[in-house]
Structure formats: structure tokens, C-alpha cells
From TrEMBL:
This is ATP-binding protein. Residues 9-97 form the PilZ domain. GO terms for molecular function: ATP binding; cyclic-di-GMP binding. The keyword Transferase does not apply. Pfam families: PilZ. The keyword Cell wall biogenesis/degradation does not apply. It comes from the Bacteria. It comes from Sinorhizobium saheli. Keywords: ATP-binding, Nucleotide-binding.
Length: 101
């Protein structure tokens, strides 16, 4: 069985085209939130910022506001971010689904 087929998602992902900025201690880049769930984000970077697994990142966008999380994976120009879960994070994501979808 392929690895991709064996990954079980905790929460469903929604495809998006949200523009934003991601920053970590090694750099900052604009990019696109490719998919979104209540617990994570796939972010496509316009520039390599050296974000590696375990790095803390901050994501800013007009639609989502300010979110923080930890890089879980990186592949090419994309990073997977596990969001720091809080009532504020949940409210920001719920607001996106309510007003921007």
C-alpha cells in the first residue's frame, strides 16, 4: 500500500486559493493556502524560506487572520502546517467557512 493511501486524516480538507504570507525564524514568503482543515494547512511558498519539520511558523492572510503552527512536512515548494489549536484558531477557521466560502 502506498504511503499516501495509508494516511488517515483527522479532519476533512477543503481546497482553497487563499493568498497569504508565512514566516519563520529563517525567512518569510508570500504564497497560497492550497488546502485547509480545522487542524492544518498546506501552504505553497513563492520562495524557499528554509522551513523544516518542527519549525514554528506564522501564517497571515486577510481571510484567516493570524495563525501559528508547526511544520509537519515539506516537499518542494509546499509545507504542511499543524495549527496550534485554540478557541481563537477554531473561530478564525469557522469565520472563513461562514463568510468566504
Amino acid at each position: 500500500m502506498a504511503y499516501k493511501d495509508s494516511v488517515e486524516r483527522v479532519s476533512p480538507r477543503t481546497q482553497t486559493r487563499i493568498t497569504g504570507n508565512v514566516s519563520c525564524k529563517t525567512g518569510s514568503s508570500n504564497g497560497i493556502v492550497k488546502d485547509l482543515s480545522e487542524e492544518g494547512i498546506c501552504f505553497q511558498l513563492f520562495f524557499d524560506i528554509g522551513a523544516r519539520t518542527g519549525n514554528e511558523v506564522t501564517i497571515r492572510s486577510e481571510e484567516l487572520g493570524l495563525l501559528t503552527g508547526i511544520v509537519r512536512w515539506n516537499k518542494g515548494d509546499r509545507i504542511g502546517v499543524k495549527l496550534k489549536l485554540s478557541s481563537n484558531t477554531a473561530a478564525q477557521i469557522a469565520s472563513y467557512y461562514k463568510f468566504f466560502r
